[in-house]
C-alpha cells in the first residue's frame, strides 16, 4: 500500500494511508530483516523494505501491513 510519511507540527513522524483515510503518528520504529518496521498509534505495524537514509520528508513510499 502507498503510505505518505511526513512530520507534524510537533516534529513527530506521521504516516498517512490514503486508501484507508488513516493518519496516525509513528510511536515506535525498529530495523529488521524486512527493512524498517513502524508501529502506528492505532497498533498497525508497517514494514518498509527500502527506506532511503537520510529520510527526506514528505515522502510517499510502498509499505506492507504486518498487523
Describe it for me?
This protein is mainly beta and 67 residues long. The model has no long low-confidence stretch (mean pLDDT 92). The chain has a seven-stranded antiparallel β-sheet, with no helix packed on it. The protein has a single domain, classed as Beta Barrel (OB fold (Dihydrolipoamide Acetyltransferase, E2P)), CATH 2.40.50. The protein has strands spanning 2-7, 13-17, 22-32, 35-40, 45-48, 59-62, 64-65. It is built from no helices and seven strands. A hairpin with a 4-residue loop joins strand 2 and strand 3 (22-32).
Give a quick precis of the structure.
With 67 residues, the protein is mainly beta. The protein is 0% helix and 57% strand.
Topology:
Blueprint: E1 2-7, E2 13-17, E3 22-32, E4 35-40, E5 45-48, E6 59-62, E7 64-65
Antiparallel strand pairs: 1-2, 1-6, 2-3, 3-4, 4-5, 5-7
Globally, the shape reads: globular
**Low-confidence parts:** none
* CATH-derived topology: OB fold (Dihydrolipoamide Acetyltransferase, E2P)
Mean pLDDT: 92
Q: Quick one: CATH class?
A: Mainly Beta
Q: What is the domain total for the residues? A: 1
CATH superfamily: NifT/FixU-like
Strand pairing plus helix content: what structural class? mainly beta
If strands are numbered along the chain, what order do they take across the biggest sheet? 6-1-2-3-4-5-7
Largest sheet data: 7 strands, antiparallel
Q: Based on the structure given, which CATH architecture is correct?
A: Beta Barrel
Q: Quote the beta fraction.
A: over 45%
User: Termini, distance in Å?
Assistant: 13 Å
Number of helices: 0
Overall number of strands: 7
Q: Order of helices and strands, N to C? A: EEEEEEE
Overall helicity: under 10%
